[in-house]
C-alpha cells in the first residue's frame, strides 16, 4: 500500500490541494458561490448532486457545515472557510522537529495527532548516531503523510520537493484557504513565484515556506499570499492578481 502512495505522488499533488479547492479557470463550468450555514438550502432540484459539506433533504440540497457553497454544473459542495486542519493520506505538510527518538523524529504539524518521521523514511541512509545532524530540534521540513493511525501520523521525506527547508521563513494561513492560494493546477502559486522570484512550499496544514533572493521579494510574496487568502468570494482571481502585482511593484 505504501508503494502505491509513493507512486501516486507527484509535484502536482503537492500544489493542487484536496478536492475542496476553488476553480478560477476561465474555461471552467459556470460557478455560483454563497456563504451558507448548516441547514440552509443551497439549491433545489433532483438533478443536483451533493458533495462534501452538503446533503440532500427531499428535493433540496442543504449545507451540513458553515462555509462557501459552490454550485458548478450539477455538483454542489460547501468549502469550509475556517476550522482546524484535518490530515489526509497523501497530503504534503510543513512541520517543525519537536523531538528525536531512537527510531525517528517527532514533527509538530499543527494537528491534534502528532507527526512521526521514521528514520527509514529519509531519502538517504541515516545512522542513528547522526540523526540530530540530519534533522535537529527546531528545524523545519516539508513531508508527506503516508499513514494515519490512532496513535499518530506517519510521515515520509521520500518524494519530490520534500525535505528540510533551509533559510527563508514560515508563516501560517487558515488551512481551508490553501486550495485558493494554490489555484487551479497551481496557477496562483506559480504566478506568485514568477512575479517575486521566490521559492514557495505550501503545506496543506496551512504552513507556508518562502525563500527569495532578498527580503523585499519574500515580503511581497507573503503579502500576495495573504491577499489571495482574504479574497474568498472573488472569481477569476488569478487574472486580478496580475493587476495587483502591477499596483504593488
Question: Care to describe what's here?
Answer:
With 249 residues, the protein is of the alpha+beta class. The protein folds into three domains: 84 residues, Nucleic acid-binding proteins (OB fold (Dihydrolipoamide Acetyltransferase, E2P), Beta Barrel), CATH 2.40.50.140; 59 residues, OB fold (Dihydrolipoamide Acetyltransferase, E2P) (Beta Barrel), CATH 2.40.50; 79 residues, Ribosomal Protein S8, Chain: A, domain 1 (2-Layer Sandwich). The protein contains seven helices and 16 strands. A hairpin with a 2-residue loop joins strand 6 and strand 7. The longest helix is centred in the last third of the chain and has 16 residues. The protein starts with a helix and ends with a helix. The N terminus is likely disordered.
What structural class do you assign from the helix and strand content? alpha+beta
Would you identify the regions where 5 or more consecutive residues have pLDDT less than 50?
A: 1-29
SS element count, helices: 7
Gap between N and C termini: 48 Å
Indicate the mean pLDDT: 84
> Would you list the SSEs in sequence order as H and E?
HHEEEEEEEEEEHEEEEHHEEHH
- Molecular shape: flat
* Helix coverage percent: 10-25%
Number of domains: 3
Strand content: 25-35%
Amino acid at each position: 500500500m505504501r508503494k502505491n502512495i509513493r507512486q501516486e505522488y507527484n509535484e502536482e499533488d503537492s500544489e493542487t490541494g484536496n478536492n475542496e479547492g476553488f476553480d478560477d479557470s476561465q474555461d471552467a463550468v459556470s460557478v455560483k458561490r454563497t456563504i451558507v450555514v448548516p441547514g440552509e438550502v443551497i439549491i433545489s432540484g433532483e438533478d443536483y448532486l451533493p458533495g462534501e459539506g452538503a446533503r440532500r433533504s427531499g428535493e433540496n440540497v442543504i449545507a451540513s457545515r458553515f462555509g462557501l457553497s459552490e454550485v458548478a454544473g450539477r455538483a454542489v459542495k460547501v468549502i469550509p472557510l475556517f476550522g482546524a486542519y484535518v490530515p489526509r493520506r497523501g497530503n504534503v505538510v510543513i512541520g517543525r522537529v519537536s523531538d528525536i527518538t531512537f527510531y525517528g523524529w517527532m514533527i509538530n504539524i499543527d494537528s491534534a495527532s502528532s507527526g512521526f518521521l521514521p528514520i527509514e523514511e529519509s531519502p538517504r541512509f541515516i545512522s542513528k548516531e547522526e540523526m540530530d545532524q540530519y534533522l535537529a530540534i527546531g528545524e523545519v521540513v516539508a513531508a508527506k503523510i503516508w499513514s494515519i493511525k490512532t496513535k499518530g501520523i506517519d510521515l515520509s521525506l521520500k518524494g519530490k520537493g520534500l525535505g528540510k527547508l533551509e533559510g527563508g521563513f514560515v508563516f501560517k494561513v487558515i488551512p481551508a484557504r490553501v486550495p485558493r492560494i494554490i489555484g487551479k493546477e497551481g496557477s496562483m502559486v506559480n504566478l506568485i513565484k514568477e512575479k517575486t522570484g521566490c521559492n514557495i512550499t505550501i503545506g496543506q496544514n496551512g504552513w507556508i515556506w518562502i525563500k527569495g533572493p532578498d527580503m523585499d521579494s519574500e515580503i511581497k510574496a507573503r503579502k500576495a499570499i495573504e491577499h489571495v487568502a482574504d479574497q474568498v468570494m472573488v472569481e477569476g482571481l488569478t487574472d486580478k492578481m496580475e493587476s495587483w502585482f502591477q499596483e504593488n511593484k
